[in-house]
Write the structure tokens for this entry.
Amino acid sequence: MTPLEILAPAGSPESLRAAVRAGADAVYLGGPSFSARASAQNFSLDGLREAVRGCHARGVRVHLAVNTLLRDDELPRALELIRFACSLPVDAVLVQDLGLLLRLRACAPELPLHASTQMSLHTPQGAAAAKELGFSRAVLSRELTKEEIRSIHDAVEIELEHFVHGALCMSVSGQCYFSAMLGSRSGNRGMCAQPCRLPFAAPGGTGHDLSLKDLSLIGRLSEFREIGVCSAKIEGRMKRPEYVAAAVAACRLDADGKPVPPELLHDLQAVFSRSGFTTGFFDAPARGKTRPLFGVRSKEDAAAAASVLGSLHSLTREEYPRVPVRLTLRAAAGEPLVLRAEDGDGFCAESRGAVPEPARTRPADAETCAERLRKTGGTPFFAQSVACSVDPGLSLPASVLNGLRRDVLDQLLHRREDRAPIPFAETPFSAAPHRSAGTPALRARFPSWDLPEESKRCEICYVPWDTPPQRLRELREAGFPVGIELPRGLFGLEGQAASRLREAAAAGVRDCWTGNLGAARLARECGCTVHGGFSLNAANTAALEQLRQFGLADTELSVELTLAQGEALGGDLPRGLVAYGRLPLMLTRACPAANGPKGCLHCTRTGPAPVLTDRRGARFPVQCAGACSEVLNSVPLELSDRLGALAWADFLALRFTTESVPEQGEVLRRYLTGGAPPGPYTRGLTARGIL
Ligand SMILES: [Zn+2]
């Protein structure tokens, strides 16, 4: 069994150094662009080269994060960055964008690819999708329980990486449109402005009902191994080097089976926390009972750091002895001294000294020499074995042996910097301009299985996945073109979802909406016609081609594209546009509305949708279903007066959430005939787009 990897954030060269010296096995970092932490310092191309050489010399792997969504015009530059990274080479590239994935498999088939947590993979089918798509590793969603991770590991042979320490987002990563919708700063483009840390109040809640404490599972790393996680990831590319040092040092001790001293845990909390830590979802907190997960960064939290920075510096004073080395000394009479060093990676170095003098008093012996050579302290090496062949009667002073040892290890360190590049061959990709049918069809999703008469004029009416099969039959017989919407959050529900899809098929319903790769694969395996949802985040032509190859019949585009950007996408896959509705700003596993004393009635689908209120009084409904909640926008997206500008789309998707059935009917009529929206509305990002 390979040992658990401690994977550290390196948002800057200083943090990189702290991570390496505190004992990380691998680091992840961003290049000059396209990293999910755009405002971290990140690395220039030269800085990246230095970082990779320095890390490889010290036995540390480097993962390059190119994990943002990309537009057509950005893909060539992202590929150029990765071509450079392959020349170094980095050890893996983290990817979110499906188009980049498609292109990388063609250009650099040998490059190990890791599916970013931004891909929202959280089920066995999700991991299987990642494997099928050519990823060697999946970074799982942070909201998983221990048993859910185990079940993914048991079902799919793919490396699993999971977060051990650091900030928790309220939304499942890759499913948050909050910052983008509120201020055009997209979390999917590394620009999140963290609006969730501001006051959003549920009735009777904490007042900050979208702000979670930071995660810490330090002390639980033996369980990571046991459930099949191969890499423990520390969050924090925006954090200071002392934080990185403390988190890495604590994880290192825990992973090595050693106790973590209470002082180190204290310092780790002092350097950054939000009112202490939480174990998040690892221990499966009951739905509706997640209030202890919530917390904010207080003034006291912020003040605590100053007192511990000094002591945390000591964690990075010396190199971490990580690389095993075999030393061989030959001291023969009349010949120059030779010290040879070999590592386990095929590198070796040799250092020659002077011809040893005959000893005047005590001659050198092999054992004493070996003891001296073992002292590799202060270097990244530790002596795995030392073999000395020493002729009798020679003088080998300590200073001579120390000098040889220093020289040979220094040489070896520099040799280790050079690695063979990973082949990268630019392959052409082109797609013809897309041709649509002319007038987009209407599709609609409904929050329940009561549908307005007008929905018969839709191409597909999606009803919830748990609609009783008898009701599906009735709807079909009454002329409603029903399909099934699978939940975007399928935590632990895949088995049930599969049975529902089979029952639906028996009732003659085959169309299935899927907003997650795992759900899409599940629906495909169940023989459905698979329709992609906006939350697959398809943002470029290559991504559409990737989804086509994955077996989708069509897809909704990313809601972060402008109309012009959507229209410009090429290729064959039919595509649609979310044209109406309160867009889900977040997909959350902890129900924010359950923080009040009465809990959330809507979690059990018996009450009306509860509402979060922001500082200005804007009201954001929360709809709960299955394993997750959706925080909806305060106003609906409306484009019914702009239908002429949407003719390029193959279909328009209307998302009904809080509307009554008569209201749904009115909206449908408006989208069939055109007309101005009656109430307050937003254009979403269709005009202004994102940064
Ligand atoms: Zn709820």
Q: What stands out?
A: The first strand starts at residue 5 and ends at 9. The two ends are 44 Å apart (CA to CA). Residues 398-415 form the longest helix (18 residues).
